[in-house]
Amino acid sequence: MKRMGMIFRAKANKALDRAEDPRETLDYSYQKQLELLQKVRRGVADVATSRKRLELQLNQLQGQSTKLEDQGRKALALGREDLAREALSRRAALQQQVTDLETQHQTLQGEEEKLTLAAQRLQAKVDAFRTRKETIKATYTAAQAQTRIGEAFSGISEEMGDVGMAIQRAEDKTAQLQARAGAIDELLASGALDDQSGMATKDDIAAELDRISGGTDVELELQRMKAELAGGSPQQAIEGGKADEGQQSQTQHKFDKQ
């Protein structure tokens, strides 16, 4: 079970890595820092509001204390020592409240100063993070675009390589077919390969007829030249040659029958 859990977490982590966009993560972190900065500023404002409220109360108590002091002085001038004592007693109670409020005021003022300083430091960090975030995002975007261009170029190169291999295969097959056709023609011409269609027989007969015709022309020309040398007519020599040729043919025919 532990192994299955580890495998599941590993696959989940890998899937998250593929799905995660660093730019979105940076923007989210920056947003969280802005929210924290806003909370700190709100805290500073709340402390400042409390401090201001204490200041108003202090001013009010100090005014009452001053008024009681004046009343006690007037009562003493009129011979009303009892009223003067009562006014001074109330003034003393107010003074205790003033002292307590002044202590709280100092505490709040110190907290306000600390929060203000923290807000300023946090603002500086947020500004620096924003600058770094934009730099990282720009670099990541440029790297991503470069990677896509490289992948696209690599895909084109592979495709062109496939096209080149296909052309090479086509040329090889064409050369092989041409060589085979040439070999068949040579075998047919030499007679080593019989023509089953009967075209070879017809070609042999035509060649034999051409041979006989060529030989006849030579004999006729020879008879004509003999006639010219003997002083005879070329036409008679040709007819005599034909007759001799016919006689030779009949003699050959008889010899073939025997």
TrEMBL record:
Residues 44-139 form a coiled coil. Pfam families: PspA_IM30. Keywords: Coiled coil. Residues 226-258 are annotated as: Disordered. InterPro entries: PspA_VIPP1. Transmembrane segments: none annotated. It comes from the Bacteria. Belongs to the PspA/Vipp/IM30 family. This is PspA/IM30 family protein. It comes from Streptomyces malaysiensis subsp. samsunensis.
